[in-house]
Design goal:
Blueprint (H helix, E strand, L loop, with lengths): L1 H8 L1 H19 L8 H12 L6 H13 L2 H13 L2 H12 L2 E5 L5 E6 L3 H4 L1 H14 L3 E5 L4 E3 L3 E3 L4 E5 H5 L2 H4 L10 H12 L21 H18 E5 L28 E5 L7 E5 L13
Parallel strand pairs: 2-9
Antiparallel strand pairs: 1-2, 3-6, 4-5, 7-8
Helix pairs in contact: 2-4, 5-8, 5-12
């Protein structure tokens, strides 16, 4: 019934989806992938191989949701939380500087490269700050279908064929799980958790962190997303200074409501900032490097 009602309940969204898929279909029909990126070419070749090339324009919507809808706002919130805390920014710059290699190009220009393969092992504070950002800013809801009558903890009856919804933000705010400072942004929180696990071998309940979902619906791209967001944040903080446009204190904005497709919603409104190149980065050619393999990031997930 919901699908039938979409032309009336989500008219603007439906029209936008049609416009997008029509444009992408035209792009593919005009041999656009021939001059596209390797990613576009690989996706197109896969569609052709499996006989679904006629649906390529529609598939791009799903790809964009996976690539952009959560990673982009997460990057935004991570930068806001970092730059709103000058001492944290200073600590992160010192940490990231340990994986920066400096050389000179043939034109005697200074070249600095951030070794992405060392982010996990050498930047625990950045990784912890990223996970804390997800803990605070995630507002997703995980849903499960009850396949048989079940009694939980001798008091909660789950009836067969009903739907269970688990609000991530509520779970992320539980003092019983995260401590009495659960409502406070603590950059080093996940470093403390890992230290405690090493010392007494206690484990954080895997279902306590829902940013990537859990079970069969656990996000398969969570390691890639973590690597790309942390790498981008490392590059940004090393290259740029950023302050509020009026020069005053940072104000953490509220998140937008009603973004049902987003696990990490964007801000409710734009914030104006002033971004300048750091003095020590003027004239420097910054690059990403991969001296070793990029190992999986340890991210809490259920």
């Amino acid at each position: 019934m919901f699908g039938v009602a979409i032309p009336w309940t989500a008219r603007k969204g439906r029209q936008a989806r049609i416009k997008f898929t029509d444009a992408m279909t035209e792009y593919f029909n005009d041999n656009g992938p021939e001059t596209g990126s390797d990613l576009i070419k690989a996706r197109w070749e896969g569609n052709v191989k499996h006989g679904v090339a006629q649906y390529a324009g529609r598939f791009e919507i799903g790809d964009l949701i996976g690539v952009l809808i959560n990673a982009t706002p997460t990057f935004f919130w991570l930068l806001v939380h970092i730059y709103a805390r000058p001492s944290l920014l200073a600590d992160l710059r010192e940490e990231v500087s340990g994986i920066v290699e400096q050389t000179s190009s043939g034109l005697s220009q200074t070249v600095r490269s951030i070794d992405v393969s060392r982010l996990k092992a050498s930047c625990p504070l950045l990784h912890s700050t990223y996970q804390e950002t997800l803990r605070v800013q995630t507002h997703n809801t995980n849903s499960r279908w009850v396949i048989k009558d079940t009694l939980l903890a001798d008091q909660y009856f789950l009836k067969e064929d009903s739907v269970i919804q688990m609000p991530g933000h509520f779970i992320h705010s539980l003092p019983s799980v995260w401590g009495n400072d659960a409502d406070t942004f603590v950059p080093g929180r996940f470093m403390q958790i890992e230290k405690k696990q090493r010392e007494d071998r206690s484990k954080q309940h895997p279902a306590s962190f829902r940013s990537f979902g859990g079970g069969k619906t656990l996000c398969p791209g969570r390691h890639f997303a973590t690597a790309e967001i942390c790498a981008a944040a490392a590059m940004f903080i090393m290259r740029f200074d950023m302050m509020s446009a009026d020069g005053g204190d940072w104000m953490i904005p509220d998140h937008a409501h009603g973004k049902v497709a987003s696990a990490v919603p964007p801000p409710a409104k734009d914030i104006r900032v002033k971004v300048t190149t750091r003095e020590e980065s003027v004239g420097v050619d910054w690059r990403f490097g991969f001296e070793g393999s990029v190992s999986k990031f340890d991210v809490f997930s259920g």
